[in-house]
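Figure S4 source data
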Amino acid sequence: MLYARAMRRLWGEFNNRNVSMQVITLLTDFGTGDEYVGAMKGVILSGHPQATIVDISHQIAPQDIEKAAYMIPAYAPCFPAQTVHVVVVDPGVGSDRAILALACDKQIFMGPDNGVLSLILARDTVERIVRVEDRSYFLPDFGATFHGRDIFAPIAAHLSRGLPLTELGPEIQLRQTVRLDLKPPVVDARGRLEGTIIAVDRFGNAITNIDRRALERVSLDPSRQRLKVHVGRYILTGLSRTYADVGQGEPLVLFGSRGYLEIAVNGGDAARVLKLVAGERVWAEAGR
């Protein structure tokens, strides 16, 4: 009962405002077998009943900051201006790690300062970064283990209703943030482009960190030259446009929806068939 009254006080000022519907996205490693995602949504809707909440994924492997970091740029451009993107992959929850909120490309991103926002922070369109410190926007009696519910969710509701970033805490510079060491593809001693498998999706497609710009570094134009990809004990030749460009059960390489080279099997699971895992190295070169 006391908790409910505190919630009503917290939201009172905002519930008197006439606001338009806003979109809030959620990306977490919470899974869906527990109440965690539902609790976050309940807090958001208590503060902004008109909000549209979009689940990006809650199946990130626990504490897999790097996979989440690569996912964010893949979905954020699909959303309208003023969308609030909330990312909670937070192995340091309850520690002295900071929470960031930033404006970029007319959208707002919020996440722990642990590198999960690295690829957004790398953009030259970042307008403002603040460190979230004003506890008056947290839930009352917030705890140390569930900041998704107690901090991220109420602040997302406030932001979606127009709260300026600067109300949350001090503005900071890019150099003050934590960023992952996401090594780009490099040219090896043999002149090949060496990349890495950064993720395996639920279909078993192995997604690399090699994009078209990276291939240009070795003067490789897949539209004109025959691409040769080395991964594990396999050599895959040619670039496909669709999965069906090869026979059923055959491996292939193509540019996936994220704009990166993917290693796949038509109608199958490339990770299982080719025994591929995240972190494995991949080499690309012009075929003969």
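Figure S5 source data
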Amino acid sequence: MAKAKNDYGFQHGLRKFLLNAKYLLKYQPNSKKHPESKLVLVISFPRSGTHALASMIDHPGIGLNYYGEFFIFNQWSPIVENLNKSIPFFSWRYFLNTRRQKRNWEHYRFEKTSLDPIKTIEKILIYPGTHTIKIFPEHLSMETLSKIISKFKPHLVILRRNHLDRYISLKKANATGKWHKVNSSDVEISINEAELQRYIDQYIDWYGKVKGAAISSGCQLMDIEFGQLHDPATTQSIQEFVAVNNHGLDSLPKAPTTTKMDKSSKIQDDYLALHNKKHSDFDFASIK
């Protein structure tokens, strides 16, 4: 069985390589940014609601393209194949690194390969429409992300969520291996005080650095909290913010179409009662 699986992987990789070779006939090395293209970065954190956000802004039919965790080799989309026209063997190299990522997860993998994040974005912007990419702290180094912000001046949607809720949601997902569409209400996890504090400090620090880089580069920003995704007025503002124009926006959902995984707050409630704290003590507040 293992040999058959490996043979399939080899054959699929070889087929991908040969298809990439055909793209050399369509090579476009000097293509310029399309006048109706737009780069949007969703700056967020694990278990902060990006899946819910995506359900409201991922609509290629009206030019809203959402690529998810593109720079961690955790998302495949049509743009991967299109990039072969201007970056030789892009999808073949992306395919190989996606396989490696699944076998052995590694942070900042994109920057450790022969693929260049800045060149990749340059070529994505050849195509019209909104190009939205989700960035977590472990996807790109702060140095590379700062260069991207400075060079492209993207629109940034920063999505925050209460630290305690995020931490518990992440612990449950790690414990079960289930990240979407599964009820995790009955999953039991323990809270490690030192780990929770490191988790909070790490993400506040990164958030401050990214927001500072965006402000100093003159980027347009929307800095919102998870609960605001359920406000139709905020949702509409997000959709207008990411879109190149308002064509078709009326047809988009004004609330997340995802299913809430954790329908219980018992672990939070027990922890707060034990430590005489309030849920709001863990709010991930916006900074100026």
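The mean pLDDT is 90. DSSP finds ten helices and five strands in the chain.
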